Sequence to fold (284 residues):
Amino acid sequence: MKNVVALFLTVTFSVSLLANISNSEKAILIKLYENTNGSQWIVKWDLSTPVSTWHGIKIENEKVVGINLSNNNLVGTLPSEITNLKNLKELDLFKNQISGTIPENIGKLKSLQELNLSFNKLTGAIPNSICEIPHLKDLKLFMNKLSGELPSQIGNLKELEVISLFNNQLSGELPLSIYELKNLKELSLSSNQFAGHISKDIEKLVALENLSLFDNKMSGQIPFNIVKLGNLEKVNLAYNSFSGYVPNVLAAKNGFNLNMRTESGVASKLEVVNTSKGVFAADE
Fold:
């Protein structure tokens, strides 16, 4: 009897191990492997083994739900077919050498919650279709060579908690829809070429904890109503062309720096208002 039970368990384990994803999803992963020089990865895939054993691949109900190949020497471009992994929740390719552009149809990844393509060599614009990913929480594309403006409909991503795009070549004004992201905790856009003003609508970002716009080309008065953001802990707006006064409450935030530069490049310094009286009236 014991032998029968042991045999049953062995067969069951073998079947569960062999249970695998569809051929179409496997083909997409192989395409990713080939496009990014898989033979030179730090941790390689053995394509003769079940996909469930491949490094960085997470499978649930015989569907690929996670790809985490961070810091694994991926060199090449992302295949557009990767957007056909309909159940993908996490795509983390942080710190590799991926070049080319972000797939234009990335919005097809309707289940995606975490997108981290940071610290690569990506160029081109952030696709507008990214605004069609309803459950996206983390958008991390920092330290690439991305250019162009932020998609105007970024405010459609109601569940976004992190936007981290620092150290790129992004430009233009911040889209007004960005101020509709009531779950946003981190907005990190430093070292780009953003211009324009900070809208008074920033007071709508009630969950915001970290605001970093350091080293851009933004100008105008920093809205005084920013002090209404009760969760805001860290602020860095230095080395823009902001002018006027800032309330002492804001100046006391972690990371705040009064140093600015005028549009002609001359160094300047913001002045601090040392009283809270009339602070909000200054914005009216």
